[in-house]
Amino acid sequence: MSKELISQENIVVGEIANGLPLTIPVYRLKGDGTGPNVYIQANMHGAEVQGNAVIYQLLEQLKSLKLRGDITLVPYANPIGCNQKSGEFTLGRFDPITGTNWNRMYRFNKALPSQVAEQHKDCDDATLKAAFKQALVADIDSQLTGPDYSLTTGKRIALNLQKLAHQADIVLDLHTGPISSQHLYCPEYAKDSASYFNIEHVLLIPSDFDGAMDEASFCPWWSLSEELAKQGREFAVQVEAFTVELGSQEKIDLSAAHEDANSILSYLNHKEVLVDAAYHPKAMTRYACMLEDYVAYYAPMGGMVEYLAPLGGHIKAGEPIAHILRMERYLSEQPLQTLSFDKDAIAILHFASASVNQGTELYKFFTNVFEL
Amino acid sequence: MSKELISQENIVVGEIANGLPLTIPVYRLKGDGTGPNVYIQANMHGAEVQGNAVIYQLLEQLKSLKLRGDITLVPYANPIGCNQKSGEFTLGRFDPITGTNWNRMYRFNKALPSQVAEQHKDCDDATLKAAFKQALVADIDSQLTGPDYSLTTGKRIALNLQKLAHQADIVLDLHTGPISSQHLYCPEYAKDSASYFNIEHVLLIPSDFDGAMDEASFCPWWSLSEELAKQGREFAVQVEAFTVELGSQEKIDLSAAHEDANSILSYLNHKEVLVDAAYHPKAMTRYACMLEDYVAYYAPMGGMVEYLAPLGGHIKAGEPIAHILRMERYLSEQPLQTLSFDKDAIAILHFASASVNQGTELYKFFTNVFEL
Amino acid sequence: MSKELISQENIVVGEIANGLPLTIPVYRLKGDGTGPNVYIQANMHGAEVQGNAVIYQLLEQLKSLKLRGDITLVPYANPIGCNQKSGEFTLGRFDPITGTNWNRMYRFNKALPSQVAEQHKDCDDATLKAAFKQALVADIDSQLTGPDYSLTTGKRIALNLQKLAHQADIVLDLHTGPISSQHLYCPEYAKDSASYFNIEHVLLIPSDFDGAMDEASFCPWWSLSEELAKQGREFAVQVEAFTVELGSQEKIDLSAAHEDANSILSYLNHKEVLVDAAYHPKAMTRYACMLEDYVAYYAPMGGMVEYLAPLGGHIKAGEPIAHILRMERYLSEQPLQTLSFDKDAIAILHFASASVNQGTELYKFFTNVFEL
Amino acid sequence: MSKELISQENIVVGEIANGLPLTIPVYRLKGDGTGPNVYIQANMHGAEVQGNAVIYQLLEQLKSLKLRGDITLVPYANPIGCNQKSGEFTLGRFDPITGTNWNRMYRFNKALPSQVAEQHKDCDDATLKAAFKQALVADIDSQLTGPDYSLTTGKRIALNLQKLAHQADIVLDLHTGPISSQHLYCPEYAKDSASYFNIEHVLLIPSDFDGAMDEASFCPWWSLSEELAKQGREFAVQVEAFTVELGSQEKIDLSAAHEDANSILSYLNHKEVLVDAAYHPKAMTRYACMLEDYVAYYAPMGGMVEYLAPLGGHIKAGEPIAHILRMERYLSEQPLQTLSFDKDAIAILHFASASVNQGTELYKFFTNVFEL
Question: Cross-referenced Pfam families, in alphabetical order (chains A, B, C, D) (predicted)?
């Protein structure tokens, strides 16, 4: 395949105050129809730009590969967040008007799995899958075509993206942490697939829906599978969806993006999206933790933080993880406090600034870690 | 009672980056112990300042009244939100770091009602009430004294306030809308009390908990009542809690605050908090709507809005509610669009700015209105 | 003239992070060449939207008028500021990255007047005028076509607008205050023209250049006039430029906009831009003050403000202009402070929010007022 | 000297909306009166926190040193900027209400040098110096004690700090760039002193006053020197003031702070502030450039930037300094653009985020570099 075989469409997902349209570029590559379809988006949170570079590196390689499945790639998924500056940094994690996290506005109609399970209980698996996929897309469409006053700005963006995602069998949402090591949000049932990414740290998440793209993509299918199990029918979850956390925000690194593209291609190759491709996972120890064991560590006091825990590194309970400097107390107290955590853990990410209030999220830790 | 009988305490609810404490002033007036205790707070959302003026006007009157119950008054409930400027306006509706709405961080331990209902099933009502109140406060304390890294900035503020609120029988959280008429959030079971406020519009809310102060105050008691009903025991909900929406944000109006104080004193008088006081509700038609019928109207297009619907006024389906000016389309389209709503309604509030994106919340409407 | 005779062009003034162009709509009406050319822009500051409605009302009337001069109308002059939200309000007074006021980035090459005065000292007035106009436009072009790394975001927007403005003989920049009465910034030499607007309050400004559009438009011509005076040649200032302050920000009012359009048409009619038109100024007392007598009143303490001075109204020295409520001092101090100003004055505008720090600009006052 | 000999005072520099005071901690160490007095402040810009750590490391060493001159140390110099969050980052470069850069609000009364030069023309140098110092402090006091409505929030903070600074002979204002190498702003006349700091890059600045602390400290003395030169009297500039740019913002690094403290102590030792101390500058090549040769490089297009130029490193004209990724143009253009600069230069700092608009300041470069 060469660059000419990639097509581009710019979808309109809203309108801003001066009337100009909000558009998102969508790139599509056609497969031969024998493999699963793939949807990959990046930059839903404004500061998390590295995924755009990964999509660039994916396109650079995909244009010379043969595909079994279709691949849809969406950089700049959030045209508001991407362009929302406040000082030098990008304030694009939440709608600046409402505070709502842009990645908590996707939809899951919880009535749908049981409806479809009931309506199509006599169908074979392939028909059932096609029917459910169609129902999911129709459900999104019914929202997009409801009364024109019924959708928030963020919901309209989310639904437009979700409509694309529901047409795929594999969904990857590319994010980053603030200052962060690489990690993968993986639904528990897809644990085996996690080993095909070159990502050392894996969070296993349950089937609860909290509004994120990965959940919005796999929860309906997981739920369908559970509905059918009640009928006594075994039906594998048909869709895999991951949030891939690429590293730190506010950064573009084309060489790291090339590595990340290879990691994703390794997974896609495993899923038989590619024809005769030579992408394979790296040998590495992969560490996992359950979402309930992913612990946020909030600043126990206000101050200026020197972060000490190596990201991706294993720390022992009681080891120093940070200094907090409190210069207004130089004479009255110990002005340099040392913090530690009371559990063995892997430090996955830390806050992006040294200045913290009491209660600011300083770190997130994997605890009760096990090898995958 | 004179001003000398009011006591003040400044509680510390956090620490900011330069190490200075975040404090909140708490004013207390003692009753003779024969009436219910009252907790009133204001300004949890930074721009919603009018409640501070209402507390001022309450204090000015309370200092010459005799009280049966204790009254605790907390202005400036959120020392971060109150001081968070972005341009001329106050950006204090959500934590500027995380986007979390400051009024969605209160706690409700859902296990508590059934535990207490079980443990104290042989107690009389008064003992049961005292035990549950104690359990609620202890539950908050257990959070405040947990590991020092376990609380977010907003949670620590919320828990400190909630600890005060749980000691009362009546809780009022003073808010405002953006540009808004007065309205009252009232739990369904306390509907009769709504008529003692001089507020024309009443939203009746169910027992669902979504993190707000009013819900955090009444949901546990509602839930306890339901648990005891399962035991076959009738136990009235012991606490009333309301969110009082005073009008528009970013404004202080001392004369309106005096009216609002009278409205609150009328309700407190009805609840027998005051001794021999002459506060009574005004005669007015009060309109109510169920929370599920409280409809948000989002801008169907981006543009510059002239708001036409009178706040607090009854509008008919299809009547103009706004013009949207779209000057970039002066030649290509009708540049002045007229919007309407498809239901009869009361317009309760509208957005604070003329500039809107497609999907910005333009109005909120009461629909399926009935007289209280 | 009918709507068909209006032409539209969208000029590109920049590019945002996701690569999309920043465009500004430009509307043009052709005159018969016998009158002065006019440039009118609106909404350079994001929250100051009412000027767009005035341009709408101007277009609605101009399309049925005959024109002597060309008229260029630019709504939405700042595609970044217009769309910069922070909470419900529009944070568009300054570049969110740098803090630079969008209306302080225009250019005035101070060397140009003396250069042109020297080079064309033997020309007649009309030739000199044409040469200077050409030199001003060429100077802007030289900036726009300099090294591609040499312009800030705001400068590029400003220069593109200024290039249009320099082609006109009359320049109106439509602004609003925060909460404000109407007033006009008028260069001292054009004082007589101020009486043709229906604006009660006029600020007379000197020839100093501080980066604003009005100054950038008239300072070069004022300076040229002074250079020629040194040669002993009398040469009237050829361009008039005004900043028209329409009232309060964040509001669209189509009926007020119609009045404002009439006010501008009255001035344009006086300047012989229109053919046989019936627009004349209203009879009213117009009050003026020199820029040096335009006094900012900063909050002498932090607190919550009730604004008392009527905007546009005459206040006496010592009269109450505001209450400041300080609820954290209810017991320790007088919690309600009354502010006054020590001079007789006209209150022109006040701050947009009740919450103020010590030192926030509360009011701006005309002092040493005289009738125009 | 031990820690007991350090004194602390918290000065009140303002009040916020909920009435709480804005305070700044001031640490003082007494010398024996035989050396120059020193003033060092940090963190005037909210995100530039590393200076606080340098003050910590200075105090840790100064407490065991003997001093000739007094030393005043002010961390957290800006209690508003320091605590102004917008998302994870600190938005403290400018007043969030007005956009004014916090480091452009200091005062220089340009009439003062000639007045004092005239009044004290018969005094000896020491008397003249004392008189001018006194006049500078009195001038600040006259501002601080003017009408209580006459000062902006930022001006009140600046004047309070400046009053402390004017009492010193040496003034250091500790800043950082966004992502930056170390560099020093040094007035041209104090060039020789620059070699006593361990800082490789030195910007030589002229005597123009633009509102910054360093300028506000040395410009009056430079100007006095020039006034006296007109009288034919040679009078060395009596005060040295520097802005020390420590590296990148949003970071605390205690080990780098220790190095920076040593660098400052080396300079202070050279100026004979310390008794028998062993701090000496490191041997290194120091590169200088004139302020007029310090070139900002603005993004020639919008996009996502990979920064390539090594900070502090020498780059050649035409070498790649950045990639700009423009993923919306993957098919229509070269999506990965390479940028270069047209001069040999040293890259001193770059923007803090990968996301840039056309016209965002990407880099600042030393050009026409020479060895000091």
Answer: AstE_AspA_cat (PF24827)
